[in-house]
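Good morning,

Attaching, inline, the backbone tokens for the sequence recovery test we're adding to the shared suite. The designed sequence is right after.
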């Protein structure tokens, strides 16, 4: 509450009398297309990396998830013979292997007991939410669907499960799922399929970054975090990028609702052995709950 009579400043002394400040945000000149699918296990595995990439460098690009159509339906012939996938039960050991390697938990036994028959239904629900609400809400739906499928072993192609997931977003699940099952829902999905083809995408996950000159970089499969940063540098033709400050763990947890240990480790460069100490330092005991599934810890905000 002290004002300096000489400088005429009330508050913190030492400010310049006059300085030029640039409040302009950098123009988002890059379009990033993330071609994915609700039942893509490697897409689940790269969630920690992709979240950090968006948080630190999202001010450079517009982010567009694109549904790729991984599984229309099971049939008598081979679905993915190169990986030994002929029937739903063949998926279970593959998923468990991905989960173990990535430490993003995957149960997989669902594909033996009550297999997902098609990835098209949850993909159509994504598109309807995107059309009727926003990209952000649709992306949250995609995240919740993957949690239910991979970690909590629920069949996300089942109508009742899709309705439940949408309801938890605060939306009318029955209305949205019903709309997704109409021909217009499939038409929305077909538009994404067409976009994926135009981008030359044949597998998931694939990230395509395109600049204003319509030149781009395509990154296929799960890659280290640095690969995405290097790809962005290439399309921007810049040697160095300026990452923005990461959100605090309390704000990130409040936004995301559920974070696995690996996601916090990747976001904040924390060793697995230090995760509990880090969380205890950043969060008060009243702010979070910690549970375990498939040998991995996960954190949720305390219900208020």
């Amino acid at each position: 509450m002290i004002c300096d009579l000489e400088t005429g400043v009330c508050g913190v002394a030492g400010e310049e009398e006059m300085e030029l400040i640039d409040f302009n945000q950098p123009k988002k000149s890059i379009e990033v297309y993330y071609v994915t699918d609700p039942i893509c296990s490697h897409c689940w595995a790269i969630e920690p990396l992709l979240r950090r990439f968006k948080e630190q460098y999202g001010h450079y690009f517009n982010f567009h998830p694109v549904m790729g159509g991984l599984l229309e339906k099971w049939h008598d012939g081979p679905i993915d013979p190169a990986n030994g996938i002929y029937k739903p039960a063949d998926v279970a050991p593959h998923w468990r292997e991905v989960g173990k390697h990535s430490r993003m938990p995957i149960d997989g036994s669902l594909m033996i007991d009550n297999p997902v028959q098609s990835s098209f239904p949850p993909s159509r629900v994504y598109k309807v939410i995107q059309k009727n609400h926003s990209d952000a809400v649709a992306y949250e739906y995609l995240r919740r669907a993957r949690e239910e499928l991979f970690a909590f072993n629920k069949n996300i192609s089942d109508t009742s499960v899709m309705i439940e997931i949408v309801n938890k977003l605060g939306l009318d699940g029955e209305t949205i799922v019903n709309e997704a099952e109409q021909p217009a829902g499939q038409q929305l999905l077909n538009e994404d399929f067409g976009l994926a083809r135009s981008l030359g995408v044949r597998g998931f996950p694939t990230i395509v970054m395109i600049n204003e000159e319509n030149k781009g970089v395509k990154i296929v499969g799960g890659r280290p975090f640095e690969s995405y940063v290097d790809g962005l540098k290439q399309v921007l033709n810049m040697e160095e990028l300026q990452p923005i400050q990461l959100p605090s763990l309390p704000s990130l947890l409040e936004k995301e609702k559920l974070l696995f240990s690996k996601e916090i480790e990747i976001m904040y460069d924390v060793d697995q052995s230090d995760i509990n100490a880090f969380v205890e330092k950043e969060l008060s005991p009243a702010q979070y709950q910690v549970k375990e599934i498939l040998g991995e810890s996960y954190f949720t905000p305390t219900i208020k």
